[in-house]
Design brief:
There is one protein chain. The protein is built from seven helices and seven strands. It is an alpha+beta fold. The mean pLDDT is 86. The strands form two sheets. The protein has a five-stranded mixed β-sheet with strand order 2-4-5-7-6. Bound molecules: adenosine-5'-diphosphate (ADP). Adenosine-5'-diphosphate is lined by residues 189, 193-194, 197, 221, 223-224, 226, 234, 239-241, 243, 251-257, 280.
Length: 294
């Protein structure tokens, strides 16, 4: 194979592991090694390979340090933020006496700002946990239908505020192996986004079905939709598009990145179907048979 063949093989196969970059260089070295100046060229390339591998190792180390630092900071911010949020809630609820209208407004601002910060900190903590490979799944076989019903009931508080109806069509399917808290987080994110990006008065649809060896959850909205080019971007961290939430909600661009990682860890899949102006459908599939040994 000539150098351009070797390079295009490298990119077509989308090698992701660090060692594959070294493999590319080795392949190129072998090609050139058949040419003249064998000794000099192979010496040079060996040095290059060594430097490259060293740089990759340093980069991986720096990335690990970054995750560790972010994890530590986020972790330490969580408790004080939860206290501020909890205490402001007690004050708003009149737990220690009454307040004037203006005082209550200030307290509401403290509550909602600390709530937003806590959500962000929790998301950042999740990203760093997942990236450093420390996400532990507690997989149990149970009813996905029951979990969906529970999450829909909880999120109804938000959808009711926007006059959005959540319409469920949930088939009876066999129990599915999954981590309850993590899959709840995925459903909350997808339902939350569907509500967040839907105009007042529209509907959000959630369906559960079985398709051969997988359970399929579809969440569809009648909002602004997503263009084809934007779809792959959405599963990367901190990606938000130009679309504005319809009720002044906050965006961090982390929810879908986390959802994708959780679903990947379950060896499932998540995909989007949408065209601008026609709403969006998020489709999650989870294997019915467990490969985690449950
Ligand atoms: P967040 O909602 O906090 O920004 P996400 O990662 O959940 O974080 O979503 C990233 C972006 O994807 C959103 O900011 C929005 O631009 C787009 N998006 C997600 N869900 C939808 C949806 N149902 N309809 C339109 N756009 C969406």
């Amino acid at each position: 194979m000539n150098p351009s063949g070797i390079v295009s093989e490298y990119f077509n196969k989308e090698y992701v592991k660090e060692s594959h970059s070294t493999r590319l260089l080795t392949l190129l070295m072998n090609y050139w090694a058949t040419e003249k100046d064998y000794e000099i060229k192979s010496q040079l390339l060996k040095k290059l390979i060594f430097k490259y591998a060293e740089a990759e190792r340093k980069l991986a180390e720096a990335n690990q340090m970054k995750n560790k630092l972010i994890g530590l900071v986020a972790h330490d911010l969580r408790s004080p933020l939860a206290s501020i949020r909890g205490l402001s809630e007690i004050l708003i609820d009149g737990g220690v006496g009454s307040f004037t209208g203006e005082q209550r407004d200030f307290l509401s601002t403290i509550y909602s700002a600390s709530n937003t910060m806590l959500t962000l900190v929790n998301d950042i903590l999740d990203v760093s946990t997942i990236e450093s490979g420390k996400l532990e799944l507690h997989i149990k076989k149970e009813s996905l239908k029951r979990l969906i019903k529970e999450r829909v009931n909880i999120i109804k508080v938000l959808s009711d505020q926007k006059g959005i109806a959540i319409r469920s069509r949930l088939a009876d399917i066999p129990d599915v192996p999954f981590d309850r808290n993590r899959i709840a987080q995925v459903i909350d994110n997808l339902l939350g986004n569907a509500i967040k990006f839907s105009p007042h008065g529209k509907s959000v649809y959630i369906a559960l079905s079985r398709n051969g060896s997988v359970a399929t959850v579809k969440i569809r909205d009648e909002g602004v939709g997503i263009s084809k080019e934007d779809m792959p971007r959405l599963f990367k961290e901190f990606q938000t598009l130009g679309v504005e939430p319809t009720g002044g909600e906050k965006c961090t661009g982390l929810g879908l990145a986390i959802a994708k990682k959780i679903i990947d860890e379950h060896r499932g899949a998540i995909e989007i179907k949408s065209s601008p102006g026609k709403g969006a459908t998020f489709i999650v599939t989870l294997p019915l048979e467990d490969s985690h040994g449950v």
